[in-house]
Specification:
Blueprint lengths: L1 H12 L18 E3 L4 E3 L1 H11 L6 E3 L7 H9 L2 H16 L15
Antiparallel strand pairs: 1-2, 1-3
């Protein structure tokens, strides 16, 4: 009964308004969840994240092949692609407002 409820919730993740495409490349029908960020990805982008970021840092699960925990699923319901993208935009904006370092007028002397 609990497994069936989790499977039903997993399927509903795909119907969320902001998750129709892969977070990374915008391809249709993402079927993989990055559970720490709460975003959906296609199989290609999920593989890239696993390979280059590392499985010790990312937790990517298949919606249909893996047993997802309630926390995994709720992370997508509370996050989602558009919310995470919005958060990245906020970070980029705040970083763009940081003062740039002043140009060096004199060369550094070697020690």
């Amino acid at each position: 009964e609990e497994k069936e409820a989790l499977r039903s919730l997993s399927s509903r993740v795909l119907t969320l308004e902001d998750n129709p495409t892969c977070f990374q490349c915008s391809s249709d029908r993402p079927r993989w969840i990055e559970t720490k960020l709460g975003v959906l990805m296609c199989i290609d982008c999920a593989g890239i994240h696993r390979r280059y970021i590392g499985v010790h840092l990312v937790k990517i699960r298949s919606i249909h092949l893996d047993s997802l925990s309630l926390n995994d699923i709720l992370g997508v319901f509370s996050g989602g692609n558009s919310r995470f993208r919005c958060r990245l935009d906020q970070i980029a904006y705040s970083c763009s407002q940081l003062p740039l370092p002043l140009p060096k007028t004199q060369p550094l002397l070697p020690y």
